[in-house]
Amino acid sequence: MGWFSGNKDTEQDPYLQKRLDMVRIQIAGRDVTDESVLDTMRRVPRHEFVSPRYRNSAYDDSPLPIENDQTISQPYIVGSMTERLKPSKSKIVLEIGTGSGYQTAVLAELFEKVYTVEYFKDLAIQAKRTLERLGYANIVFHIGDGLIVPSDPPDFDAIIVTAAPELFPDSLLRRLRPGGQLVIPVGSYAQTLQVASKDEEGQVSIRSLYGVRFVSLRSDSQ
Fold it and tell me: CA 194 to CA 85: how far, in whole Å?
């Protein structure tokens, strides 16, 4: 199966103050300093990506459950991972794990184009509907194994993985362009957020940042 695209429309929301407080306290109040990331997270309506029963908790400092025993990540983690991708409107990014589509929306505001992969078909379809309704036109969707990504485009300026494989997937490094960053949680029960950077000569360095807790990456190729 190949990529399929979404279209754009806009919608106003009533949660502005909660969103501003979320960014001020949880994200800027910690160690996220990239103003483009902070401004984006002030705009993107996180409450649109959770079920109605969790809507009043949408801007809390915690992950929330979504369908298929998956989660929408804690706002701070979204900001921290996004900042480490070094976003730019001239770059394209690959996201492994569309989930609710919230992280996808943040990326779509900051990158020229987002390619996103989701293992669960119903999650992918729901995220696509939400993102279309909110107006995003620069997202290309794929349903399938997160470690078997369509070969077009052949590489990406940045890659973010929002579920944890037990081992670092070297196959993703081959899809990262020189000068790019790959941000990924790695591990089974004890997980660490890692950042892989590829220099202009293609040499890779990997840094471990801090402990995290993500759902396990679903892949038939592991």
Answer: 12
- As a whole number of Å, the CA-based R_g of the chain is 16
Rounded to whole angstroms, the Cα distance separating 85 from 87 reads 6
- pLDDT digits 0-9 by tens, 59-70: 999 999 999 889
Mean pLDDT computed over every residue of the chain? 92
From residue 64, alpha-carbon distances to 24, 57, 74, 100, 193 in Å are 20, 8, 8, 10, 19
What separation in angstroms does the CA of 44 have from each of 95, 123, 191? Answer: 17, 19, 28
Kindly give the pairing relationship between strand 92-96 and strand 4-5.
unpaired
Q: List the one residue out of 164, 69, 68 whose CA is nearest residue 121.
A: 68
The encoded tokens of residue 69 equal 């025993």
Element (H, E) at 160: strand 156-161
The predicted-structure confidence for 30-44, as pLDDT tens digits, reads as follows 999 999 999 999 999
Q: Are strands 176-187 and 191-198 parallel, antiparallel or unpaired?
A: antiparallel
Measured N-to-C along each axis, helices 75-83 and 35-43 cross at an angle, to the nearest 10 degrees, of 140
Comparing CA positions, the residue from 17, 7, 67 lying closest to residue 42 is 17
State the pTM of this model.
Answer: 0.92
CA distance 136 to 109: 8
Q: Are the C-beta atoms of residues 200 and 179 closer than 8 Å to each other?
A: yes
Residue numbers annotated as active site: 73
Name the token pair of 18: 């909660």
Alpha helices by DSSP H, listed for 2-57, are 16-21, 35-43
